[in-house]
Amino acid sequence: MLGRFLDIIINNDIHFPVTSVYSKETFTGFLTNHFSSIPSPYKLGLIRTLLGRAYKINNTWLGFHEDIKKVTEILKKNLFPAHLLERGCQSIPHADL
Predict the structure, then answer these.
(1) What is the pTM of this model?
(2) Range 10-23 average pLDDT
């Protein structure tokens, strides 16, 4: 059984509940573009927020890894450079990315 609550999807079909990040079908992936005129700390904050959200919501490393790949692809589509993504990943505790 799949349950959706806020930004979380819960799968109870296995021996224990597995949680991961949920996005509606209408989510387009458009975020702040890297070349927009907002200050750099806001851009880094966006990266840290998305990565931290994936870290806090997922209860398996496999789900966390899948969500990190999704976040990375979304940020690349919004023209974020790889070195900023690496800086954002450093803020996640014990994440071996």
Answers:
(1) 0.81
(2) 82
